[in-house]
Amino acid sequence: MNRRRLGSYLAVIVFAVPFLLPFYLLIRNALMSRRELGSLDWHWWPETVTFQGFADAFGNEAVPLAHALWNSTLIAAISAPLSTLLASMAGYALARIPVAASKPAFFFIIATMMVPGAATFIPTFVVVGSLGGVNTMWGLIVPGLFSAFAVLLFRGFYLRFPRELEDAGRVDGLGYLGLYGRLALPNSGALFASLGILSFIEHWNAFLWPLVIGQDPEYWTVQVALSTNLNQQAVNLPALFAGALVAILPLVALFLIAQRWIVRGVLLTGIKG
Amino acid sequence: MTTAAPPRPATGRPRRAPGRRAARWPAWRAFLLLTLPMVAGLFLFKYVAIGWGFLLSFNDARGTIALGDWNGLENYRRLLGDPAFTRSLVTILLFTLFIVPVTFALALGLAVLVNRLRGGRAFFRTTFFIPAAVSYVVGALVWKMSLFSGTPSGVANSLAYLLGYEESIGWVATVDPPLYWIVLVTVRLWLQTGFYMILFLAGIQQIPAQLYEAARVDGAESEARLFRHITWPMLRNTSVAVVLLLIINAFQAFDEFYNILASNLSGLGGADGRTPLIYLFQTALGEQNYGAGSAGAFVVTVLIVVFTLLQGRFAGFGRSEEEG
């Protein structure tokens, strides 16, 4: 019995090393000097720890990293709560308001789930482009706000919402909007948090759509800025890794702090996918 | 009938006749207010977009997104006649056929392993899960510029050196044998395995412990038999969902291919590492050929839908066998 457990620990450690190695490389490379990182020898740790990479990353005028970070923050911070709110509104109406249009509206919404997201980037670009959305903040944000999948999850949640609570609210004179705003929404905090955090991660890490829409450097997100640096002719390696480290720190922190909600969200969106 | 009908017993339902008519408009108004943003957004960015794209795919739309220059099936003919496009379809097919089973096995194996631990379970779960926080761009950067960089100080080359290889290997640039493939596959494994491990872990933890106890009483002692007869069948629904998600995600590969290979495409004998989405990106945004780009979007969409339907079909057969 004990030997088996020892075996499990050995195996899990063997797998853990390659999973942690890339994080180690990110940190090590960001803290090395250009000369040392460019040298041909392997170093476990920089001889002299330097923050020059960070200074270079933020000092590069051709690729405005600070501005890109600001764009990404803005996009994710607006998209996550707003897309979750829109989904919860629709989910509540579909679950709880008995009108004849409920079923057709539901099918109208979930039918969009059959079309894979990334394969629609050209049609969506055509629409957003014709509306003048290229190189605009709204072009980056608005098309990503509508998740049929989140509607499905919220609808399921509100279908199980206790009737007694709503009856009590009705006695107090609340209409449907009041029931949603005063009762249903405040009581869906857990689902809201799980899906909101996942949405934040998704928008922060998005690459294809920002690459398509934010063509002007002023509208680059942090992922587009990193990619631009990566594909340049002469690469300043420590600066590249310093920028990447800055780009993942907010999300790694979020993961460590809010892990419970993230796992819940993964299970919800993963299983039902 | 002369006697008056007895009064109907009061039911739990809200009173019908007068109340319903009065409640109608407020209910409709609330329904519209709450669903309209979502319905309008999906209408514009999915339905209109797809409809327009579909029409555009039958137009000669170069440098324009306007309809009107009808050219029938010319875009589709051009696309399917372009070896670069058909090669990109082969590329993504091979990629999917490889990455789906490997990620599946690795995620399931890690879930079983982590579940078996007593102490430190949370630590290892986090270790495997945290790459899911990293973007594909950053993953591509670490893989291309550090782990699998062509210089002697790259991690893979340092390991190769320890194993006796004197020459440093240019991983991304080597097409024959296709070493760049190792770079592409491992980065995706690192980025996505933890996500699916979490799904399996939750599935395993929902299996009632009594099942295992009963099996042990019946004489099933070995770990492998318990897995085969209890864990695996009980994870059926999770497995189907995981395979479905893996297929959809594999077909839409773009980020890591673009960032690892984009600047090296010429060095890779043309379009070897291009996925369909990269091909379409270059067609639509590089050449500004929106007609051909739209046609390609539909070819890819149809492929994904067919593949996921096929997968559902196979999973469905499995179920009927089990139940029958």
TrEMBL record, chain A:
Principal subcellular localisation of the protein: membrane
Every ABC transmembrane type-1 domain range: 69-258
Superkingdom assignment: Bacteria
Subcellular location: Cell membrane
Residues spanning the membrane: 7-27, 74-94, 106-131, 137-158, 179-201, 237-258
Keywords: Cell membrane, Membrane, Transmembrane, Transmembrane helix, Transport
InterPro entries documented for this protein: MetI-like (IPR000515), MetI-like_sf (IPR035906)
GO biological process, one term: transmembrane transport
Gene Ontology CC: one annotated term: plasma membrane
A Pfam family it matches: BPD_transp_1
CDD domains for this protein: TM_PBP2 (cd06261)
Family label: Belongs to the binding-protein-dependent transport system permease family.
Protein name, as recorded: Sugar ABC transporter permeases protein
Organism of provenance: Nonomuraea gerenzanensis
UniProtKB/TrEMBL annotation, chain B:
Any matching Pfam family: BPD_transp_1
Keyword match DNA repair: no
GO biological process: transmembrane transport
Transmembrane segments: 30-55, 89-115, 122-143, 179-202, 234-254, 290-310
Matching SUPFAM superfamilies: MetI-like (SSF161098)
InterPro entries in UniProt: ABC_transporter_permease (IPR051393), MetI-like (IPR000515), MetI-like_sf (IPR035906)
Protein's membrane topology: Multi-pass membrane protein
Domain ABC transmembrane type-1: from-to ranges: 89-311
A single GO cellular-component term on record: plasma membrane
Compartment annotation: Cell membrane
UniProt keyword NAD, yes or no: no
Keywords recorded for this protein, A-Z: Cell membrane, Membrane, Transmembrane, Transmembrane helix, Transport
Family designation: Belongs to the binding-protein-dependent transport system permease family.
Official protein name in the record: Sugar ABC transporter permeases protein
Organism in which the protein naturally occurs: Nonomuraea gerenzanensis
Higher taxonomy: Bacteria, Bacillati, Actinomycetota, Actinomycetes, Streptosporangiales
